[in-house]
Design goal:
two-stranded antiparallel sheet; Beta-lactamase; 12 helices; globular; alpha+beta; seven-stranded antiparallel sheet
Length: 364
């Protein structure tokens, strides 16, 4: 679980001096014309940030106007074999899984009459607060007096797994595979790495043909790396944990672009529910907290930002940053944890130099 301190992850510290100079240089540049967005410039600078962070491989995409306008693979998805990262390289997406869980629960609200005001105790005894509701867990506000404070906690969010299983009347990973991956042609996305467990959840759906297709995707999964303070990358192992509502899905930046477009097209959940999910929850006194339902929500230079990071310790990281008012989204996936400083869990995406670069070039 990510800590709640403001400290920067050790792998991020060595890049600060050079990378801050880079971002400062970009900040002094004239803002490009809106009709000629500087994708080549962004690619060059984001690759420089990748190298300074010691990230072996990174894939990136930008969606604008509900279409994929740019993508790239930078560095190596397998450094030992010198296999380049590509836009269709699969990665473990970590906490980005939460956005899929929010969609599944949103579909339950719209199509099955489910209420997120239901007490979480109906499905889990691992959250002791008697007043905690599903909506509090979705917003990471279930600890203490539910709804009155924010604490990012993956173990609590994972308790939404049986909620999703129950309201959809199918295992969470099967719902994601059927209603999102298959429906929107996310062919390089998987509901986890453990194929045996996947198959056992629904043998008729996850038949041998589908499992073979999944196995083919797994052969291209980015190799995970641990990066030390000096920027040296060492091959690591993925965690043995399976899929929960909090983490565990596998995807690519191109597939996540399809997910992003489906969200904006109201093809996953309706606009009214999406608006609620992308609005800060507030305390009983009206104070805004960092989360909506399944997403972080904040403002940058007057522009609302909706975003989520992913972190898999010593193995991978992710960032999905939406600027709804500009109809533009950044998607980044990496095979080390250098994209996700721990302080991101405090709710300010601008602590990420990658996010700051994107915002300067495309939003400021």
């Amino acid at each position: 679980m990510m800590s709640e301190t403001d400290s920067v992850h050790p792998t991020m510290r060595p890049l600060r001096a050079g990378a801050l100079v880079l971002v400062a240089t970009v900040a002094l540049m004239p803002r490009p014309a809106a009709q000629s967005l500087p994708y080549a410039l962004f690619e060059r600078y984001v690759d420089a940030l990748r190298e300074e962070a010691g990230i072996p491989g990174l894939s990136a995409a930008i969606v604008q106007g509900r279409r994929l306008v740019w993508d790239a693979g930078l560095g190596r998805q397998d450094a030992e074999r010198s296999v380049p990262a590509r836009a269709d390289t699969p990665y473990l997406i970590g906490d980005l899984t939460q956005t899929f869980a929010a969609v599944v629960l949103g579909q339950c609200v719209e199509h099955a009459g489910f209420s997120i005001a239901e007490p979480i105790s109906r499905w889990s005894s691992d959250i002791p607060e008697s007043g905690a509701q599903v909506r509090h867990v979705l917003a990471h506000t279930s600890a203490g007096t539910p709804g009155e404070s924010y604490r990012y906690d993956l173990s609590r969010f994972a308790q939404l797994t049986p909620v999703a299983d129950g309201c959809a009347d199918r295992p969470f990973r099967r719902v994601v595979a059927e209603e999102i991956f298959d429906r929107f042609a996310m062919r390089d996305s998987l509901p986890g790495r453990d194929l045996t467990a996947i198959g056992s959840t629904a043998p008729a759906f996850f038949d041998d043909g589908k499992l073979r297709a999944y196995e083919s995707v797994l052969t291209r999964l980015a190799v995970p790396y641990r990066v030390d303070r000096g920027g040296k990358a060492t091959r690591a192992d993925y965690p043995a944990d399976g899929v929960t509502a909090a983490t565990g899905l596998i995807s690519t930046v191109r597939d996540l672009a399809r997910f992003d477009i489906a969200l904006d097209d109201d093809a996953l959940i309706g606009r009214n529910l999406r608006t609620v999910a992308w609005t800060n929850v507030t305390t009983s006194g009206g104070a805004p907290l960092p989360r909506g339902l399944g997403w972080f929500v904040q403002t940058y230079n007057g522009e609302p930002l909706v975003w989520q990071f992913g972190a898999v310790r010593d193995a991978g990281s992710a960032l999905m940053l939406k600027v709804p008012g500009r109809d533009i989204t950044l998607i980044l996936l990496a095979n080390s944890d250098g994209l996700a400083p721990e302080s991101l869990s405090n709710g300010d995406v601008t602590v990420s130099l990658f996010a700051k670069l994107f915002l300067r070039l495309f939003v400021s």
